[in-house]
Design brief:
- The chain is mainly α and 86 residues long.
- It is 67% helix and 0% strand.
- α1 runs antiparallel to α3.
Length: 86
């Protein structure tokens, strides 16, 4: 099946696109769990104003440097495929 991304010979490593999807899924899941916990704490009066301000002022990085490297590899692969077609 040409649309299915393959694993390496030992079947242990995913290709960069699949790794990126898994990493982004894990990040999204962690952010949702954090938000749910924070909502619970706010509803139950367990968070002070100072803590809320600290949370709001401390942004969570959206992607890691490994994610960026994976994206760069994907872009390079796509560019090579495009140039081979033309």
């Amino acid at each position: 099946m040409p649309d299915v991304r393959s694993m390496d010979n030992q079947g242990r490593r995913m290709d960069v696109r699949d790794r990126l999807i898994v990493a982004l899924y894990a990040q999204l899941k962690a952010e949702r769990e954090t938000r749910e916990t924070l909502e619970w704490a706010i509803r139950n009066g367990a968070v002070s104003q100072a803590v809320l301000e600290a949370i709001a002022a401390d942004p969570v990085p959206v992607v890691t440097s490994e994610d960026i490297a994976s994206l760069e590899k994907i872009i390079a692969l796509d560019e090579r495929r495009k140039s081979k077609r033309n």
